Hints:
Layout: H1 2-27, E1 43-50, E2 53-62, E3 69-73, E4 97-102, H2 120-134, E5 141-146, H3 148-160, E6 166-170, H4 176-190, H5 193-204, H6 211-225, H7 236-243, H8 247-253, E7 283-288, H9 295-304, E8 308-313, H10 320-323, H11 325-341
Parallel strand pairs: 3-4, 3-5, 5-6, 6-7, 7-8
Antiparallel strand pairs: 1-2, 2-4
Helix pairs in contact: 2-3, 5-6
Amino acid sequence: MKYNLLSYLLLVLVFTGCKNNEGTVKDNYLDFSKRDDQFTGGIKMIPITTSAGKFKVWTKTVGQNPTIKVLLLHGGPGLTHELYESFDGYFPNESIEYIYYDQLGSYYSDQPDDNRLWTNERFVEEVEQVRIALGLDNTNFYLMGQSWGGILAMEYALKYQKNLKGLIISNMMASASDYNQYAENVLGPQLPKTVYDQIKAFEKNKDYTNPKYTELLFKYYYTEHILRKPLEEWPESINRCFKHINPKVYVYMQGPSEFGITGDATLKDWNVKPRLKTISVPTLTIGAKYDTMDPRHMEWISKEVQNGRFLFCPNGSHLSQYDDQKTYFSGVIRFLKDVDSGRFKRNN
């Protein structure tokens, strides 16, 4: 009887302590009073050292949680943190700290005109410098990358996974060649033949700036595979993100075509498939039915890494955080909390 009472009291103490800890995080989530970025509302211009000189990149921290801090790597290359602004509707309620971040060359950061800077290796070192400046480590640091950001997240993990607590690869395959084949053999032929033929004719002639080419892409391709809503219903944050793109960085690394990474783009031969098995940190991969990326490939990545989990968005496309929002955020939040609590298990 005495043993049972003691056990009961210990259980009460444990559960009460957990509850109080969670309550403290939630109570202090928006308390900036002891932070060095209170004056700017969480914004920091972080100095970055490169072989081409010193620059500054823009970050903004939302909330505070000592054990869950998510650094967001945007797509492009050359887009902005603005594509993540829907996170404001979900992460704060879960007391998840997250950091918006414009990579070098992107709108809110310095934009040097020097192609020597646009390499995977240089971007990885930039992320590492941002991590150090923000005081992130393997007790709290989650790295989340979407599209090009997913490439960067994989590359970072392959070099610096010792610094990570968790990794999220959203809507990105592990091979440019596989992505090209999916775009060419699966997505392109799904378009009306007359439309696809026109698009291919523009690309054959390298007439990428033709207004008709852009019109066809937005009307028939983007609304099916980038964000599945009529253009007039696209969120203002996404329109703003596209408006702020740095086309020089984008074309140099990704190329001018939306049907794969082609031409002289520096990413056209990128492939980390053989190295994925070395990633041991808990990893979530996200794929969507209508994505520009093959969701089956995303599921394969989750099985190839040592501790992977796959999230499928049945109604989503490339920006599933908007067109399959409930599925997307419930899966991401569950992953973060499972890893944080020690309950993470791979689902394959």
